[in-house]
Every structure is written in C-alpha cells, then in structure tokens.
C-alpha cells in the first residue's frame, strides 16, 4: 500500500493512540495492520474475517476495533444476516480519513486559540526545565521557583508567542482547506 501524507498521519496517530491506551507498542502496531487491511480492502469487513486475514484472535481484534471506534478511527455498520442475527462490519476509507484529520485539525486550532486568549489576558511564567506554565498568582505563591524542580521561572514573551501561535493556526487552516 502506497501511503499518502493523510494516510501516514492517520496511521501514526492511530498507532500512538492505541499504544498509549494499552501501554503497549505492539498493540499500536496491530492497530496499524488492522487499519491498513481495512484501507486496502476498501470495504466493510467483519472482525472474524480480519482475524483470519491477520492471523490473530478475533477477541484481540475486537478489543482494538472497539477502542479505535470510540476514538473515531474506524466506522461500524450492522447488517442483518438472518431474522435473529446481526453481523458487525468495520470500515475505513479516504473520505473517513480526511474527515477525521479535519476534525483533529479543528480541535488543535481550538486549543491553540484558547491558549492565545489566555496569553492575552494573563501574565504567564514557564519553567525552562519541565515547561510547566504558571499564572502570576501561582508564581508569587511559589516565590518565582518551579515547585517541581526548583528552577527559576521565566516570563513568557507574549507577543512572540501569540505571533507564533497565529502562524501555526494559519498553517493548520491552510491544510484543512486543502483537504
């Protein structure tokens, strides 16, 4: 499978998300294998079929699929097989990946805009060692020293920080429009 930028970003996000969720890099790699299989097939596939294709237990595949579904990484359709049974099929496609990335970009832009608003309203200080931020009230309380590592706190250069964040937001919105 030849990966374009969208797909590789999506797969890397999924790998990290699942590896973090399970605290296990192998689970992240398995999630990528599942996503690649779904992408290559470009159709909705039952979890038992995925298990056969990948040679992994259906229970393990199902656990990862459910976590990925909660994270919005895969879609799920329920099809009736007969009067009393349903079959659940999992899917992913280019439009799905594109929508996911646009949503993710929008979430990041929202957080960056919130950070810009905070910077413009509050005097912030940062620890140059652990990079944790503190408000002016907290800085006075901690006597201008980081409570974690006793490093001297430094005031954030607000104009350059806001300019930097504005450029990042502009670039992200440009990427979003290209999608």
Automatic annotation (TrEMBL):
The reply to whether Cell membrane figures as a keyword in the UniProt entry is no
Q: Is this entry keyworded Transcription?
A: yes
Instruction: Quote the Pfam families the UniProt record gives.
Output: TFIIE_alpha
Q: Name one GO molecular function term.
A: DNA binding
Task: Give GO BP annotations, semicolon-separated.
Answer: regulation of DNA-templated transcription; transcription initiation at RNA polymerase II promoter
Q: Which InterPro entries match?
A: TF_E_archaea, TFIIE/TFIIEa_HTH, TFIIE_asu, TFIIEa/SarR/Rpc3_HTH_dom, WH-like_DNA-bd_sf, WH_DNA-bd_sf
Keywords, in A-Z order: DNA-binding, Transcription, Transcription regulation
The residue ranges of the HTH TFE/IIEalpha-type domain are 6-98
The record's comment about this protein's domains reads: The winged helix domain is involved in binding to DNA in the preinitiation complex.
Q: Which family does the record claim for this protein?
A: Belongs to the TFE family.
Give the function comment from the record. Answer: Transcription factor that plays a role in the activation of archaeal genes transcribed by RNA polymerase. Facilitates transcription initiation by enhancing TATA-box recognition by TATA-box-binding protein (Tbp), and transcription factor B (Tfb) and RNA polymerase recruitment. Not absolutely required for transcription in vitro, but particularly important in cases where Tbp or Tfb function is not optimal. It dynamically alters the nucleic acid-binding properties of RNA polymerases by stabilizing the initiation complex and destabilizing elongation complexes.
Q: Could you describe the subunit structure of this protein? A: Monomer. Interaction with RNA polymerase subunits RpoF and RpoE is necessary for Tfe stimulatory transcription activity. Able to interact with Tbp and RNA polymerase in the absence of DNA promoter. Interacts both with the preinitiation and elongation complexes.
Please identify the protein, giving its name as recorded.
Answer: Transcription factor E
Q: Which organism is it from?
A: Vulcanisaeta distributa (strain DSM 14429 / JCM 11212 / NBRC 100878 / IC-017)
Q: Which gene encodes it?
A: tfe
């Amino acid at each position: 499978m030849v990966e374009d930028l969208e797909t590789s970003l999506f797969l890397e996000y999924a790998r990290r998300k699942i590896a973090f969720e399970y605290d296990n890099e192998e689970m992240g790699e398995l999630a990528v294998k599942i996503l690649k299989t779904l992408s290559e097939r470009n159709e909705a596939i039952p979890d038992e079929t995925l298990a056969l294709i990948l040679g992994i237990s259906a229970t393990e595949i199902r656990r990862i699929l459910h976590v990925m579904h909660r994270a919005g990484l895969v879609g799920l359709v329920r099809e009736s097989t007969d009067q009393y049974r349903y079959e659940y099929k999992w899917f992913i496609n280019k439009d799905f990946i594109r929508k996911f990335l646009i949503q993710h970009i929008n979430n990041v832009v929202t957080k960056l805009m919130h950070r810009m608003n905070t910077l413009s309203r509050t005097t912030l200080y940062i620890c140059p060692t652990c990079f944790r931020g503190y408000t002016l009230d907290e800085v006075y309380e901690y006597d201008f020293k980081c409570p974690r590592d006793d490093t001297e706190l430094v005031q954030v250069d607000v104009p350059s920080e806001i300019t930097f964040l504005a450029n990042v937001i502009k670039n992200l919105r440009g990427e979003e429009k290209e999608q």
